[in-house]
Amino acid sequence: MKRTDGPWRIEASGDDVEIVSDAMPTGVAELATVHSSAEYAPTLPAEANARLMAAAPQLLAALVAAREHVTDAWLSLEQYGQLRNQIDEAISAAGGE
Question: I need a surface site. Which of 17, 55, 78, 79 has the fewest CB within 10 A?
Answer without folding.
Answer: 78
